[in-house]
C-alpha cells in the first residue's frame, strides 16, 4: 500500500468511530483507496475550466475534505468568478470522502464564538452563492458526504453519486446537532426523512438518497465522472440566458404558495418570450432546424 493510502487509512479510522460508520461502509470506503487518479496539487481546491464546464475539486483528503474556514473561502472564490463562456460548475473531491463537513478542530471552545460565527456565516454564503449563480451547479459524489458535506450536496442544483456513496448528518453523535445542514437537507427531502437523518446520524445509501430526492442520479462507481460530464455537456447545448432565467425562477417560485407561484411563473414565461434565445428556439422548432443560441 502506498504512503498516501496508509495515511488515508489512518484518517478513516477515527472517522469510523466518530460517525459510527458500519464495517460494511468502512470497507467500501477503503476500497476506493486503490484509485490512482488523485491530484497532487497542494491547494485546498483545484479549479479548471474547459468547454464552458468549470470543475472545482475539494483537495484536502488527509482531512477528509473538511469544510474548514480556509476550504470554504477557497470554494467561494472558485465559485464566484463568472466568465462569459461559463455554463456549468461541477464540484467533486479527491479521496474516498467527498466531505466530512466542518473541521471540528475549528469548533472547539478555545476558538471562541466570534470565530465560530465566521465559519458558519461563510458556509452559508457558499450555499447561498450556489443557488444565486446563473449557471447550474452539479455535485459529483464518489464517497462519503456527511454533515456540512451533505449540506453541500443538498445545496447543489443537481447531484450525481456513485452506488457506493453514503450520506449522513451525524452531528448529534458528537454533541453538535446539524442545524445548518438541516436547512438544505429539509429542502431536498421530506421532513420525516430529514429528521431521521438529523436525530440518529445514521447514513443513507445512494439509492435511498435518490429515492428521497437528495440526489438526482445514481451510477456505477467507475462511471460517476463520465455521467456527470454527460449531464453537464447536455446543459451546455441549451441557451445560457434561458437556463439562468429558469434557475432563478425555480428557486423564487418554490417559496411561494401555489396561486402566487403560478402568477409569478406566468410573468417569467412572458419575459422568456422577449429574450432573443426565446424567440430563436421557437422559430427553430417551427422551421424544423437546430436553434442557434446567442451564447
From TrEMBL:
One of its GO terms (cellular component) is mitochondrion. It comes from the Eukaryota. Keywords: Fatty acid metabolism, Lipid metabolism, Mitochondrion, Transit peptide. SUPFAM superfamilies: ClpP/crotonase. It is found in: Mitochondrion. GO terms for molecular function: hydro-lyase activity. Gene3D superfamilies: 2-enoyl-CoA Hydratase, Chain A, domain 1 (3.90.226.10), Lyase 2-enoyl-coa Hydratase, Chain A, domain 2 (1.10.12.10). One of its GO terms (biological process) is fatty acid metabolic process. The keyword Transit peptide applies. CDD domains: crotonase-like. PANTHER family: ENOYL-COA HYDRATASE DOMAIN-CONTAINING PROTEIN 3, MITOCHONDRIAL, PTHR43602. May play a role in fatty acid biosynthesis and insulin sensitivity. This is Enoyl-CoA hydratase domain-containing protein 3, mitochondrial. It comes from Biomphalaria glabrata (Bloodfluke planorb). The lineage of its organism: Eukaryota, Metazoa, Spiralia, Lophotrochozoa, Mollusca. The gene is LOC106074709.
Amino acid at each position: 500500500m502506498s504512503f498516501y493510502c496508509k495515511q488515508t487509512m489512518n484518517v478513516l479510522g477515527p472517522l469510523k468511530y466518530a460517525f459510527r460508520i458500519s464495517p460494511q461502509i468502512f470497507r467500501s470506503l477503503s476500497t476506493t483507496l486503490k484509485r490512482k487518479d488523485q491530484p497532487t496539487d497542494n491547494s485546498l481546491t483545484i479549479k479548471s475550466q474547459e468547454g464552458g464546464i468549470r470543475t472545482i475539486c475539494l483537495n484536502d483528503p488527509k482531512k477528509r475534505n473538511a469544510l474548514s474556514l480556509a476550504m470554504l473561502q477557497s470554494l467561494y472564490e472558485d465559485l464566484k468568478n463568472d466568465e462569459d463562456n461559463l455554463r456549468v460548475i461541477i464540484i467533486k473531491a479527491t479521496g474516498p470522502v467527498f466531505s466530512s463537513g466542518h473541521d471540528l478542530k475549528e469548533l472547539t471552545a478555545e476558538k471562541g464564538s466570534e470565530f465560530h460565527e465566521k465559519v458558519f456565516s461563510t458556509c452559508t454564503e457558499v450555499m447561498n452563492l450556489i443557488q444565486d449563480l446563473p449557471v447550474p451547479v452539479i455535485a459529483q459524489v464518489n464517497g462519503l458526504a456527511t454533515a456540512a458535506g451533505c449540506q453541500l450536496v443538498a445545496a447543489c442544483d443537481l447531484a450525481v453519486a456513485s452506488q457506493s456513496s453514503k450520506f449522513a448528518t451525524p452531528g448529534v453523535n458528537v454533541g453538535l446537532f446539524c442545524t445548518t445542514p438541516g436547512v438544505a437537507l429539509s429542502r431536498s427531502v421530506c421532513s420525516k426523512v430529514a429528521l431521521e437523518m438529523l436525530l440518529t446520524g445514521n447514513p443513507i445509501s445512494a439509492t435511498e438518497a435518490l429515492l428521497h430526492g437528495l440526489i438526482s442520479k445514481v451510477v456505477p462507481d467507475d462511471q460517476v465522472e463520465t455521467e456527470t460530464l454527460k449531464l453537464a455537456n447536455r446543459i451546455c447545448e441549451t441557451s445560457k440566458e434561458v437556463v439562468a432565467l429558469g434557475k432563478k425562477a425555480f428557486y423564487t417560485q418554490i417559496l411561494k404558495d401555489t396561486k402566487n407561484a403560478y402568477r409569478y411563473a406566468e410573468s417569467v414565461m412572458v419575459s422568456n418570450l422577449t429574450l432573443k434565445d426565446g424567440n430563436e428556439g421557437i422559430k427553430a422548432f417551427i422551421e424544423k432546424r437546430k436553434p442557434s443560441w446567442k451564447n
